[in-house]
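Box 3.1 A note on notation
Throughout this textbook, protein chains are presented in two layers. The first layer is the amino acid sequence; the second is a token string describing backbone geometry. Keep the layers aligned when reading.
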Amino acid sequence: MPNKTLLLIITLFALFVTNLSISAKPMSIIGTSPDKTVSMNNIKHDAYDALLKKYVDKNGDVDYSGWKKNDVDTLSDYLESLSAADPEKPASKENTLAFWINAYNALTIYGILEKYPTSSIRNHTSKLFGYNIWKDLQLKVDEDAYSLDEIEHDILRKMDEARIHYAIVCAAKSCPRLLNEAFTGDKLEQQLVKNAKHFFAQDGNFQIDENRGRVKLSSILKWFGEDFGETESELLETIQPYISEESAEMLNSTNTWKVSYLSYNWKLNDQKSK
């Protein structure tokens, strides 16, 4: 009898693991293996740029309803065009960063459009069973498929450019704004600075109280703190070029600031929810 009980437990566990494995398989892969590949220097982002200008306002809020009604296929075509990039072919760091930032943001938008109407990306990030947009939605680039998690953690975060965290978006109100133009290698520095300054100009991302010696920052700087320095002092130093001169002077007045982090608003960055 004990052996039968043990066998039943093992069988049930095997079924559980099998179902877990099945549920974890990618549910959506965009793009196909190309016949011919090119350097990321030669990938064009014009079609994506036109879509951003059409459906994204200056604050980064998106007309998901209009985009889903009229231009899902156009976005899909752009994502499929990214499949032609060969990560192994020589490309400038600027063009490589622009490529992966655009890929991340465009794939996120596509994932939201697939599920729209929805109130938050967190409605589609199952931890155990079912669809997880950050893991199961993938983009084919050359022969490999990359999830949003892989693009962010395995590629972008390893490129020694912490300002990606002010450029890639998770379709939430507390994310950096979705820039209403495509990132390009020739304008990358300007665009990163522009979005970083906008990010820290928002009260929901940066607050300073000189009298109490307190600085409150976006939770993004907590979650990815190691990308901004080994200490809070280093973190505060990295943000100084992007905050107001007055705030920067306050930060420089003392090194005894108490740092805390603001709550994160996961509500969809939808123009309809204003």
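The CA atoms of residues 34 and 84 lie 6 Å apart. DSSP finds eleven helices and six strands in the chain.
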